[in-house]
Amino acid sequence: MRKALVVVLSLAMFCTACSTAWVSTLDSILAAAAPALINILQIVAVANGQPVNANLAAKINADATIIKTLAGDFAKASSGSTPGVCQQLQAAVGVYQADQQLVLQIAQVGDSNTQTKITLLAGLVAGTVNAIMAVIPSCQSAAVARNMKTAAPSYSVSTFTDHYNRILLAPTGNAAVDAVTPKLKLHQHSKLVRAVTFGRLE
After folding, report:
1. Which among 39, 62, 41, 40 has a CA at the least distance from the CA of 51?
2. What is the rounded CA–CA span in Å between residue 195 and residue 119?
3. N or C: which terminus of the chain has fewer CB atoms within 10 Å of its end residue's CB?
């Protein structure tokens, strides 16, 4: 299942010539992936009757922000500084990936149905790292890196969101978990857009 999801996440449907288009793609991945990862922490907390691990949730948000900042810096970097910024960006992705591993370490609950939900969600979110790495140009020579920054592999945030929400909303039989999961749905549009369209656009 994970391999198929990675393929979906990494599939390039189109490319553009805009040198910063890949940054927008990266932002869209993180805009879905980071909240999805934090949602897993919330499900674990509800299932175990404990507070959410606020420190880890804050770290995930902070590390995602660092990736976004470094991506913007890399897109604007001069040819001489490109390789160094790119290496920092890839290192930041490694930190974010370690955050995912931390979530997996604590994502243990006694309810087997909820544990299955968590495992499936975690597998889906894990595939986003592959999508992120596919978007980031490689840290090669300045000239090569500059040319690669013109390509923008596309990421289907709607496909990821649909898969995620489908798993998220599947009933577990655990009343507390089933009550909270509808509130954790990922949305493709802002609250304003959803309000204007009376909920027709998620």
Report:
1. 41
2. 33
3. N
